[in-house]
Every structure is written in C-alpha cells, then in structure tokens.
Amino acid sequence: MAVGYPARASATLVGVSDELPSSLVGTGDTLTDAGRDALQAIISDPARTLITLDFDGTIAPIVADPEHAHADPDAVDALARLGDLVLGIVVITGRPARTAVRLGGFDRHAGLDRMVVLGQYGAERWDAHGDRFGAEPEPEAISEVEAELPGLLAGLGLSGARIEHKGRAIGVHTRELPDPGEAFDALRPALDDLARRHQLKLEPGKFVLEIRADGSDKGDAVRHIVAETGARQVIFIGDDLGDLPAFDAVRDLREHGTPGLLICSASHEEDALTIHADLVAAGPRGVAAWLGALADQLAAQ
Ligand SMILES: O=P(O)(O)OC[C@H]1O[C@H](O[C@H]2O[C@H](CO)[C@@H](O)[C@H](O)[C@H]2O)[C@H](O)[C@@H](O)[C@@H]1O
User: Fold this and answer.
1) Is the dihedral angle over the CA atoms 44, 90, 163, 153 positive or is it negative?
2) Where does the signal sequence lie (predicted)?
3) Which of 96, 100, 101, 194 is deepest in the core (most CB within 10 A)?
C-alpha cells in the first residue's frame, strides 16, 4: 500500500505499535509519537473523530486544467463509507465550495449526507444536509484586479497563463506554460504588488498564484469546525502551502489536549508539509488507500 514515504528530518519516528494495523501506519517505522497517539484515539473513539482534508492534490490528482480535476473515486467511496462511522467529514479547500462539490461528486453519495465543504479557505460553506450554501461578501477589489491582469501578463510576456476566476479570488496558473517554474518566479513579485495595492493577499500554490481577500485561512477553518462539532480527535490531510496553517492549527490543538493526526499527500512538486506530517502518503492514490484502510478498520470494529 502506498503509505510510508521516506523519513522526515525533524519528525520523531517510532516503532509501529502492534496495536495499530499496518495498513494505517505504512510499511516502515514512519509514524510519529503524536501520530500514533492520535491514531489510537481515533480507532478507539471514531464517533468523536473529525476528518478534515484538502481537495486538489490530496483527493483529486493534479491535472493541467483545474476544471478537469475530479476526485479519485476510491477516495470518495472511502469517505462515503467513513461518513457513518465518524463524527464528520469536512473538505477544506481553496476552491469555491460548489466547485469542489461538483468535481468531487459529493452531492451524489449516500454516505456523504452530513459532509461539509469549506471553500475559498473558509469564506464559503456548503452543507450536504439540506444542500445549504453560505458565503462571506465578495471583496470588491477583485474586479479591479481582474481588469489589470491582462495588461500585467502581457507586459511580462506571459499572456498564455491560465486565469481561474473564482468570484472572491482570482488564480493565475503557470503549469501549462513552456517553463512553469520560471513563469511562476517572474509573476510572483508582480502579482504580490498587484494584490497589496488592492489590500488583498497573494496565496502561492502548485504553479498557481492566487489573489484573494486577506481573511480566513485553513487554520481558522480547522479551529472553527473542531469547536463547532466538539470533536475529540481530528485528522487533517493536505499537500500544498495553503495547508500549512491547518497543520499549525492541528499541532496547536494537540498541545491543548486534542489528539490530531497530520497526513501529507506527497508529490515531487511540493515538500513543505512532509517534515511536519505524522504520516506521508504517496499522493492522492496513497490517500485514497489510507482512507479505505481506515474505513475497513472502523467498520470491522
Ligand atoms: O486547497 P486546494 O483544494 O488544494 O486547492 C488549491 C488550488 O488547487 C487548484 O490548483 C491546483 O490543482 C489544479 C488541478 O489539478 C492544477 O492545475 C494546479 O496547477 C494546482 O495548483 C485550483 O485550481 C486552485 O483554485 C486552488 O486554489
């Protein structure tokens, strides 16, 4: 199974406990102490465990066109099986909430009828129960940024960059340009300046630079949903820079007595999360396998 990537420099690695199934801890000694404690708490008390996770690069494989980034069906099936076994499942994403619901097919699975999607870093919320949607007001400055963007891109010779309009945010993608890394580096200072001039912030990701309101981040979203649900244990799975605040939030919750398990969906494009993770999965396929193993374990209990 695709879990148990190479050891992280600063993570404390422990021997895998006999009490924990190897399908959940990987094949090597790759689980941290805190991760082992959290996993034990999760397995002994699933009904008060909250599963929070990112969308792109975590349950949806990275593809060139964001409109074609569908969730891995095995991951969605595993989440649907977990839906009745745990306290809740919450997707926390940079995508608009409704986009994630559509690309994930989350409104078409019986087991996901209590799922919550927190979109645009927590500024939007979709509840599967009742198909309810709510959002903060959109920042007016986004339309001004939108108007300036074509001229800025043309000035840098990067008119071919893909622009993703997200309502309250705008993403500029370099993945499909001839040299995505070089284009990303050239664009970053210009977009940072553009964002600042409009009192917005720049959110970097995998070959994407996003201009959005300087509001909530995924850490705020995790803290809020844990408090709202009264979760006793929390899992967060992510892959990209925008997930770091959620990792920080889980570590903070841990320090205050709430066991938390941090899983990184690894890729060759971004390794910022691996040293902070308790467990590293081999990309979305590894995450799907791990979620499936957790569903098997909890269903068998
Ligand atoms: O918070 P997330 O769910 O991880 O969303 C972060 C950004 O993901 C998307 O971009 C990434 O995935 C695309 C599709 O695979 C890929 O083409 C792109 O290169 C990646 O950066 C999404 O398009 C952004 O809006 C999200 O903010």
Assistant:
1) negative
2) none
3) 100
**Mean pLDDT within 118-125:** 98
Cα–Cα dist 13/32, whole Å: 5
Q: Which domain holds residue 188?
A: 141-212
Spacing, Cα 66 to ligand 1 middle (Å):
6
221: Cβ contacts below 8 Å, ≥ 6 apart: 52, 92, 118, 121, 122, 246
Alpha-helical segments (H) within 109-231: 141-155, 180-197, 218-229
Partnered with residue 119 across adjacent β-strands are: 124
Residue having the nearest C-alpha atom to atom 21 of ligand 1: 206
Tell me which of 152, 182, 212 is where a domain ends. Answer: 212
Tokens found for residue 11? 């993570």
Give residue ranges with CB within 6 A of ligand 1.
54-57, 62-64, 66, 69, 93-95, 164, 171, 173, 175, 205-208, 210, 240, 242
Q: Ligand 1 pocket test: which of 52, 53, 56 has the largest number of ligand atoms within 8 Å of its C-beta? A: 56
With respect to residue 26, please indicate whether it lies within any of the assigned structural domains: no
Task: Identify the residue whose C-alpha is closest to ligand 1 atom 27.
Answer: 94
The 3-state DSSP class for residue 211 equals strand
What percentage of the chain has pLDDT greater than the value 70? 92
Are 205 and 221 in a shared domain? no
Model confidence pLDDT, tens digit, residues 13-52: 333 344 678 888 865 457 999 999 999 999 999 999 999 9
Residue 238 CA: nearest ligand 1 atom is 4
| Segment 81-114, tens digit of pLDDT | 999 999 999 999 999 999 999 999 999 998 999 9
Tokens of 293: 């193993």
The residue whose CA is least distant from atom 26 of ligand 1 is: 94
Phi and psi, residue 3, nearest 5°: -125, 160
